[in-house]
Amino acid sequence: MNAQNLIRRYIIVGERRFSNYWWSSSILLGSIGFLLTGISSYFGSSIMPIFGNTNINFFPQGLLMSFYGSLGFLVSLYWWLLIFWNVGGGFNEFNKKDGIIRIFRWGYPGKNRRIDLCYTLKDVEAIRVELQQGFDSQRTIYLRLKNKREIPITGIGQPLTLKEIEKQASELANFLQISLEGL
């Protein structure tokens, strides 16, 4: 067996998803529009000719528009920072060659930015799949260790279909030669 058949790596997409780029851009553009309208109402003249309407009184409409624009700008800035830091992104590596499982994720900046968990293959008892149906259905694959600790190995915010979750869990259980629970 060659080394490629002994190592499997699954990439976990963090905040760098298309939907996050879309919403952070939309909120940024909307908040700039609100902020410019509020500032224009304060000065009594249009800052940007394309917005054109100077018939808004500063108190209370202009003040509220400035507030919502500032708030939206801060939310957008936070969202762009999450995308830049790629919070939640990383990989799951299952290495039969060295006998280890490595789960790596990027977190928020600080001393715990790098979340790097390593376990031996001997510590793994089973792969467990949890399916929660309903309005906010969740499908999660857990790595269950012998000390009864369960570690989620699917990414957050990337809903997988039932077929995909079954396929991924069964392939992983076959690769690691351990039992599969929950299906």
TrEMBL record:
It is a multi-pass membrane protein. The keyword Nucleotide-binding does not apply. One of its GO terms (biological process) is photosynthesis. Keywords: Chloroplast, Membrane, Photosynthesis, Plastid, Thylakoid, Transmembrane, Transmembrane helix. The chain crosses the membrane at residues 21-43, 63-87. One of its GO terms (cellular component) is chloroplast thylakoid membrane. It is found in: Plastid thylakoid membrane; Plastid, Chloroplast thylakoid membrane. InterPro entries: PSI_Ycf4_assembly. Signal peptide: none annotated. Belongs to the Ycf4 family. This is Photosystem I assembly protein Ycf4. It comes from Atractomorpha echinata.
